[in-house]
Amino acid sequence: MTDPLILGIETSCDETGVAVLEGFTVRSFVLASQIEEHARFGGVVPEVAARAHVEAIRPLVHQAVTGAGIHPDQLDAIAATRGPGLIGALMVGYAFGKSLAWTLGKPFYGIDHMEGHLYAPRLEYAAYEPPAIVLLASGGHSEIIHVRAWGDYSTLGTTIDDAAGEAFDKLARFMGLGYPGGPVIDAEAEDGNPDAVRFPRALRDRPFDFSFSGLKTSVVTYLEKAKKEGTLPSRPDVAASIQEAIVDALVEKTFNAVDETGVTAVGGGGGVLANRRLRTRLQEEADRRGIDLFIPSVRMCTDNGAMIAAVAIDRMNNGGAPDGWALDVDPGMRLGS
Ligand code: KG4
Ligand code: ZN
Question: Ligand 1 centre from 138 Cα, in Å?
């Protein structure tokens, strides 16, 4: 049997991502980022996002199909993100994908965005297999998932308030560093001392859960006080110290879950996994324990169409039913539901 050719579309937030996969091999990968459009508002504006997806989707799908060197008729299926995400943004990719599938007479699969992040390492590591603990950290989610088998997940931990990416974004905005906050703090922290300021680590008594809203309060309080007292550390030192507090929590709780379950593989996905300090710290901890770590390249960590197509391939190969034509997006979709 030849590997299926699948078109994957991702439009849940602020990136229009389209890709063609042949099995788990990436044949084409295109992305249109809306960062510039949202930057002047300091965050993603849902209406602006939906509008930008409408403008980007047709040329990007065309680019992905021609870039893969195929004719649309050769596709075996089409997949698009069904949720979770911004409703208007989701509807653009989902409706476009469904219409294209209908026109071509191909099956259509609506995919869980977080399952996409969970699958992304499969596109780069043949050895990435369950059982595994997977850290998913993005702008809207911070979760620790126990993957018992593909399609069989339990959520061990989650955030009780802000997501890790949200913490980066809010703190960067407070510091006047710009948007999105993760990459700017990552860059600013490069020359900073992570031990310059010891910000509190929350929820030490809950082994798998996160809380980041207290960090925000303590950074704000600390900076205001230091400014008054004339003891303000350098911006790189503050950025590195904030980053260290977030990374500490993510690393500690991920490996608490490894200890609890006894797995020997750790995966990761979501925009925050692009963070260089987090990647280094996860690798150090994995090496120390002899655990295999599967963190994809930066372009596969952030939102993209390839990860969406990857989930659809398994669903198709396992005889999973395509989405019915009457089905719609599900902005509140939960992994495993
Ligand atoms: O997965 P993603 O691209 O979109 C969502 O599904 O939310 O994640 C976006 C989030 C943003 O909060 C962004 O600040 C964060 O990922 N991010 C980072 C880095 N690159 C992106 N956070 C920390 N360090 C980075 N290098
Ligand atoms: Zn995402």
Answer: 5
